[in-house]
Amino acid sequence: MASKLPLRMMPGFPMASPRPWSMRAFSTCRRSTLPLPIASRPSSLVSRPLIQRSFRRSYADAPQAQLSPEPKPKKRFRFFLWTWRLTYLSVLAGLGYVTYQIYEGRNPKEQLEPDPNKKTLVILGTGWGSVSLLKNLDTENYNVVVVSPRNYFLFTPLLPSCTTGTIEHRSIMEPIRNILRHKKAKVKYYEAECTKIDYQKRIVYAKDDSEIKGDTMETEIPFDLLVVGVGAENATFGIPGVREHACFLKEVGDAQKIRKQIMDCVETATFKDQSPEEIKRLLHMVVVGGGPTGVEFAGELQDFFMEDLQKWVPQIKDDFHVTLVEALPNVLPMFSKQLIEYTESSFKEEHIQIRTKTMVKNVTDKYIEAQVQNPDGSKVLEKIPYGLLVWATGNALRPVVKDLMSQIPAQAKARRGLEVNEYLVVNGTENIWAVGDCAVANYAPTAQVAAQEGTFLARLFNTMAKTDAIEAELRDLSGKQATANPDQRKVILEEINERQRQLRRIKQIGPFSYSHQGSLAYIGAEKAVADVSWFSGNIASGGTMTYLFWKSAYLSMCFSTRNRILVFFDWAKAKFFGRDVSRE
Ligand code: FAD
Ligand code: NAD
Fold first, then answer.
1. 524 with 302: CB under 8 angstroms?
2. What is the pLDDT of residues 332-372, one digit of tens each?
3. Which structural domain range is residue 164 located in?
4. What family does the Swiss-Prot or TrEMBL record give for this protein (predicted)?
5. CA of 413 to the centre of ligand 1 (A)
6. Mutate which of 156, 393, 533 to test ligand 2's pocket (most atoms within 8 Å of Cβ)?
């Protein structure tokens, strides 16, 4: 009789119990110390009647209490369960978001045609200032024209990592065409250098400086509004030999040149019958300038040597040296005292030599001549031989900026760049704005400042366009009001009042104010230093945790999802496989 009943209705069979061949039954039996039924083995090879028979047998022998439904998981287990659920839901949501970002990035929408009746806004440069302006600008309000010899945006904070191959340069470049193609209205881009700005005639002169030339190489671009974001060039202070013999570190080409020269020095030093002095010279890597560029590069270079070069070319082990030369009494002058000391002691541990109070005066192809200040204050001239020389002594004005300054009487006293007012308007002009390293607004020439200035200008231009549109509507409404009957006039008056209220709200745009988020710098050996603003104070920290913070901060700041993924994989690649020591 009992054997004819369906298994679920047999006495002693738990109603809410899972199927006997499920994993849950398997664990229930294990907990209840019952002999493990054959059927509960998660094997499809066991036949169904056999499962049923053996299961019936084992449950029939079991006391009732042991067969009761599984108790609910305790509170703390429920917590872990929910944490796990939340984690995988977040991972799924994150993956969905990244997939959407990639899809959106690869599939730009149709764009509006520019309206010839609108004002022409010319933007010079595709660096931090100009790109952050473009990113936030409503391009349908203007005819936007971008002129820059570089058809990509470069994430400069990670450029020192490209010199040793920790990061590939393409991972930190974002094509300007991608950026512009995602704007609502079309933007014209000319890959050219602006050679002159005639601020009175409102014309920009542009020259195609690329290797491939068409039948037009120079052109004139008229503007109503102009934004100058051409950055700065490398300062050499007129020191002889610098341009001829040193490498700079500002552009992708510079990083590639450095990477090639490091390997060239190493391979030449290991050439047959090289004299010991020549080996020492070739393997002496000298970095001039103890600002963040010089410090970060020196740290990256020493990492490359410690982690890769000495492993693959062991014969250079005793002769490879990195020296950082700085004219001032200490490196990283913009960081707090404790971080300066931390960096200096960290460099000592990493065997990077720091030569402070050493000012380079002359550069030849094989050595630099530097004026060294002794502890007693006396000065001596010293020759320091080098194989690779990297020059990182800060910024100087570009010729086009110097030329514009010379045309504007109000800029006669300016020395470090275009002086601007609190709305970033170039002093002495009405329709020219300047952002980033070419502007002097009492802030340090950093990406942070340039990006915030660009965002501010976008807000200003968007507001100006809205204001123009509302003012045109107001003129229109006033005209209509004159010929309207009393009822219509009442309605029009209400509309005029509403537009005036809107105008007042929009016009309330305050002047530019910079919010300093802090300074970060990598110092090698997986350590970084950070001076981070915290409420009204400042937190100074250095070490490996700061390095992780540095990494996550720069990863999140990369321009696009594509950049973020590429940088992440470059880091992983360098960690697992090491850096590539081939020359190219
Ligand atoms: P840039 O970004 O230099 O852009 C200038 C643009 O103008 C370029 O597209 C250029 O091609 C174009 N251009 C040049 N000449 C002309 C011309 N005649 N006509 C038209 N276009 C022209 N800052 C930080 O805050 N944090 C960091 O970690 C950091 N790390 C750095 C690391 C390195 C190696 C370097 C070199 C700089 C670093 N900086 C950092 C500083 C930061 O990169 C600059 O302050 C920032 O790039 C300035 O932005 P910008 O828009 O003024 O100029
Ligand atoms: P810098 O102006 O900050 O430092 C240049 C250093 O070179 C100075 O300390 C100067 O004393 C030294 N110097 C000048 N002439 C010399 C000579 N003849 N001999 C020896 N030393 C000499 O330049 P940088 O490091 O290229 O930085 C430029 C700008 O970019 C700065 O505003 C900097 O803050 C910013 N930046 C920031 C970061 C970061 O935040 N991690 C990284 C790189 C650059």
1. yes
2. 999 999 999 999 999 999 999 999 999 999 999 999 999 99
3. 120-230+399-437+444-464
4. Belongs to the NADH dehydrogenase family.
5. 24
6. 393
